[in-house]
């Protein structure tokens, strides 16, 4: 669930993988009860979505002050 599209699709390792994984981890921590991205989906289904450009959608919209802290 934390693999970048580059790694899933082409096996390319590099900084982009770390940035993507960090972004997904940050997304998870901002959700209620640290909800994992793609909750309830199989790894194959997740890989298919990520390869096709899909990104997880937030469970709840964050207050404006949170965006100010991380933006």
Task: Explain what this protein looks like in three dimensions.
The chain has helices at residues 5-10, 15-29, 43-51, 64-70. With 71 residues, the chain is an all-alpha fold. The longest helix is centred in the N-terminal third of the chain and has 15 residues, at 15-29. The two termini are 24 Å apart. The mean pLDDT is 76.
Report a brief summary of the structure.
The chain is mostly helical and 71 residues long. Helices cover 52% and strands 0% of the residues.
What is the strand and helix layout of this fold?
Blueprint (H helix, E strand, L loop, with lengths): L4 H6 L4 H15 L13 H9 L12 H7 L1
List keywords for this structure.
0% strand; 71 residues; mainly alpha
> What string gives the helices and strands in order?
HHHH
Shape assignment: globular
**Percentage of residues in strands:** under 5%
Gyration radius, rounded: 13 Å
Main sheet summary: none
């Amino acid at each position: 669930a934390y693999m970048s599209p580059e790694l899933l699709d082409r096996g390319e390792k590099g900084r982009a993988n770390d940035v993507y994984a960090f972004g997904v981890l940050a997304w998870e921590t901002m959700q209620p009860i640290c909800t994992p991205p793609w909750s309830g989906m199989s790894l194959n289904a997740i890989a298919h979505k990520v390869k096709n450009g899909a990104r997880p959608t937030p469970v709840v919209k964050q207050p404006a002050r949170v965006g100010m802290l991380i933006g």
